[in-house]
Amino acid sequence: MDLMSNLALGFQTAMSLQNLGLAFIGCLVGTLIGILPGVGPIATITMLLPITFGIDPVGALIMLAGIYYGAQYGGSTSAILVNIPGEAGSVVTALDGHAMAKKGRAGAALGISAIGSFIAGCIATVVIAALAVPLTDLALRFGPTDYFALMVMGLVFAVVLAHGSVLKAVAMILLGILLSTIGSDLETGQARMTFGSLHLADGIDFAVLAMGIFGFAEVLRNLEGGEQRDVIKGTMGPLLPTRDEMKRSIAPILRGTGLGSVLGMLPGNGAVLAPFASYTLEKKLSKRPQDFGKGAIEAVAGPESANNAGAQTSFIPLLTLGIPPNAVMAIMVGAMMIQGIVPGPQVMTESPTLFWGMIASMWIGNLMLLVINLPMVGMWVRLLKVPYRLLFPAILIFSCIGIYSIDNNPMDVVFTGGFAIAGYLLIKMGFEPAPLLLGFVLGHLIEENLRRAMLLSRGELSTFAENPLSLILLMVSAGLLVLSALPTLRAKRDEVFVED
Amino acid sequence: MKITRRTLGLMAAAMMTALPAIAVAEYPQRNITLVVPFPPGGGNDAMARIIGDAMTRQIGATVVVENKAGAGGVVGTQAVQNAKPDGYTLLLGHSGTMGINPHVYPAATYHPTRDFTPVGLISEIPLALVVNKDLPAQDVTGLIALAKEKPGELSYASSGVGTGSHMAAELFAHDAGIEVAHIPYRGSGPAMTDLLGGRIDFLFGVIPSSHAQVAAGKARALAVTGAERSPTMPDVPTMQEAGIDGYEAALIYGLLAPAGTPDDVVAKVNASLNAVLADPAVQEKLAVDGSVPRPGTPAEHRAALDADLEKWGALIRDAKIEIH
Predict the structure, then answer these.
(1) Which value does ipTM take for this structure?
(2) What contacts A74, CB < 8 A, 6 or more positions away?
(3) CB distance from A341 to chain B under 8 Å?
(4) Which residue, of A285, A395, B83, B288, has the greatest Cβ tally within 10 A?
């Protein structure tokens, strides 16, 4: 059958000694650079892009894909160990992953995210191989109205499930949306809230905000407490996840993979929602929702799998249409162009070795990541035993290098410092940074898609109702809001983003 | 080889003639930074890396591509404007940053030929007018008729306000006398997505990636914006052939240095650039983004920059394109 012969061609390409080596180097280097606090996949690929120029196109793309997965995995590691998410996807991982690390289960958190990512990667690869082409046409029907409705639902999840401090969570989400509107207006080119500064003309970089209010603020908060960490208090338990933890994780991994695979293939960057959606879902389904935010392994397993599955299926629009759904894929397009390949639907038929070789290499890359990362877990955990007086300056210095390397812009480092102070004050007053980051990430997409939908409909609000998909999504969102307003249900409502 | 009086004499003569060359050959002594005022991954970045990589082998110094993105290219462009004019900092400039930005961005206070030294044109990128495959219009005349029949109802996508794809479409609307709605996107990818999804009627995109969609039957190309037809899609007429008199919209790309860069350094970089552009391997790689190489002198580049600035300024004034 066709699929089998295509996959055979793919594995034949990807299994050549050279391509195996390139995939391995990509995964390894990606992991190592990505582990720098705040350095997510985009920054890593950008830094390492030039080393792929001398290689043939298939090898170069296989290596870049390896760097991408590796950096993603490395980013999770720094989120878990030092609470610094390098990109939107690892914000959720930082919540319970870092809480687990504080409880001495860093190894289990790292282990389950490696295992979860591997399972998610394997399944998503099969999805891409079997369904990429038919799903592409389906995903193209997803327009601005649908994206808007989807992102609204993402925000409503956060509002509905935030408990105890609903008002504070809403305030943080709105602040996040507000921060996302800084910069040039897409429709008019007008500079908004930039105070005349060119540094703000493109808005605030996610890593700058996340590193400031998450990582740096965490460092400040730890400084006031003195050295009291469970990690160094002897009993650490088994390094890797226990049998019980594995059992609790398997269903979240599978659900997260499903969510991530579906959201990832949307050409409008639906993948950002995947880990948040998985977290919300797992907490809803959990028998122990009170543990979420305090180091629940399900809350690491599900979102990590969703994130990885989404990362993988976001290759679909790139491979089948030549259209990059997000910034990482845009860099892949650049890499293809440098290699002399015009991205487009013809890649599949004109360069089958490239298309199928890349798909096969995804599976190989995921396997390699597992092999590379599981033995390293012990090493990372030992890193936590380094005394604060050495660990904190090191984190701060590496973070500053990471931030600077994003855009070669020293002002970014200054801004991170500012956000660190703001983040510290927010934590002190009981506001959580996670809803703010969710608002920030979704804010761009909500605004752009709302205004685009309005432009396309020439200002008719009914466009949201005429479109069945957006109507359903908006009705679900409204329903969730109404449910949350009912006092009887309020008692049962869970908290998603409360950290401590 | 046996050294005779004769060969010694020849060697001396050779060294004498080589002397002036040695004086110029002092440049480059160290790495040359080529600033791309956009993030990595776009067509600009790819072009800079292809040229930079080839020039590294040609000029005898490493050309390092540095991405200084921000404010539609203004940040990186101004960084080069203020750099030391010694030839070690070069800029990739194009119609967007040099010809359009000074008219639309208040922050873009620079002038392309007064604040920079033109080094040489790299290439021209003509665009293709692409329509949704279900649109009834079969040619440019049909598209204009359709737009006149339903004024304001057709939508076109651009990769952002003030980009080449926006200006090419505005020039078309202005010359054809039609009223169409502008829907800006963040980059050409999402713009193409909505064209394929049927929410957008037409757009102006670079030829190779547009051709990829056309060849796959997902869109139709009605015209190309260059003065000549494109070898990529030879059956597609130019805008002028399709009936829009005097319409030409190709984006020009070139290397610039800060104002006051010494002539001998400029000449050396220009020679290296032209040598690189003559290399078929480089031409082939540039063609992926639809680039048509335009090797030439610094003076030709200067004239092209001035003409470009004037052309887009006139359109923005005449068509009353409001950006702020």
Answers:
(1) 0.85
(2) A30, A31, A32, A33, A34, A35, A36, A39, A44, A86
(3) yes
(4) A395
Rg value, chain B, Cα: 22
Contact A53 B155 (CB under 8 A): no
The reply to whether residue A330 touches residue B41, judged by beta carbons under 8 angstroms, is yes
Q: Is B40 at the interface with chain A, CB within 8 A?
A: yes
Q: Which residues from A are below 8 Å from B186, CB to CB? A: 186, 448
- A346-365 residues touching B, CB cutoff 8 A: 346
Q: Is B211 on the interface with A (CB under 8 A)?
A: yes
Instruction: Check B189 against A330: CB less than 8 A apart.
Output: yes
Cβ–Cβ below 8 Å for A186 and B66? no
DSSP state letter for A236: -
In this structure, chain B runs to a length of 324
Q: How far is B136 from chain A, CA to nearest CA, in Å?
A: 19
Give the integer Cα–Cα distance in Å for A347 and A322: 8
Check if A458 contacts B (Cβ < 8 Å): yes
Q: Could you give the CA distance from residue A158 to residue B304 in angstroms, rounded to a whole number?
A: 54
CB A201 to CB B71 under 8 A?
Answer: yes
As a whole number of angstroms, the distance between CA A316 and CA A312 comes to 8
C-alpha distance from B265 to closest chain A C-alpha (Å):
27
C-beta atoms of B193 and A331 within 8 A:
no
Instruction: Provide the domain limits for residue A232.
Output: 2-490
pLDDT in tens, chain A (500 residues): 578 888 899 999 999 999 999 999 999 988 888 888 767 788 788 778 878 878 888 999 999 999 998 888 888 888 898 888 877 888 889 889 988 988 888 889 999 999 999 999 999 999 998 888 888 888 888 899 999 999 998 888 776 656 556 788 889 999 999 999 998 888 887 888 988 888 888 889 888 998 898 888 888 888 887 655 545 444 455 778 888 999 999 999 999 999 999 999 888 888 888 998 999 889 888 888 888 888 899 999 999 999 999 999 999 988 888 888 888 888 888 888 888 888 888 888 888 899 999 999 989 999 999 988 888 888 888 887 888 888 888 888 988 888 887 777 888 999 999 999 999 999 888 888 888 988 998 898 899 999 999 999 999 999 999 889 999 999 988 887 787 666 544 454 444 544 44
Domains of chain B (ranges plus CATH)? 30-124+250-318 (3.40.190.150), 126-224 (3.40.190.10)
B285 vs A338: CB contact, 8 Å cut-off?
yes
Q: Does residue A441 fall inside a structural domain? A: yes
Within 3-42 of A, beta carbons closer than 8 Å to B belong to: none
Using an 8 Å CB-CB cutoff, list chain B residues near A333.
41, 189
| Angle, CA of A314, A317 and A321, to the nearest 5° | 160
> Has residue A497 been placed in a domain?
no
Q: Is B43 on the interface with A (CB under 8 A)?
A: yes
Phi, psi of A299 (to 5 degrees): -75, -10
Which positions 206-245 of A are in contact with B (Cβ < 8 Å)? none
| Euclidean distance between CA atoms A391 and A348, whole angstroms | 48
Cα–Cα dist B160/B72, whole Å:
9
In terms of DSSP H, where are the helices of A83-232? 89-102, 106-140, 144-161, 166-180, 206-210, 217-225
Are the beta carbons of B140 and B243 closer than 8 angstroms?
yes
- In this prediction, the residues of chain B whose per-residue pLDDT falls under 70 are 1-25, 322-324
Number of domains in chain A: 1
- How many other CB atoms are there within 10 angstroms of residue B84's CB atom? 10
Beta strands in B52-148 (DSSP E): 63-67, 89-94, 116-132
Q: Is residue A380 part of a domain?
A: yes
CA distance A126 to chain B (A): 24
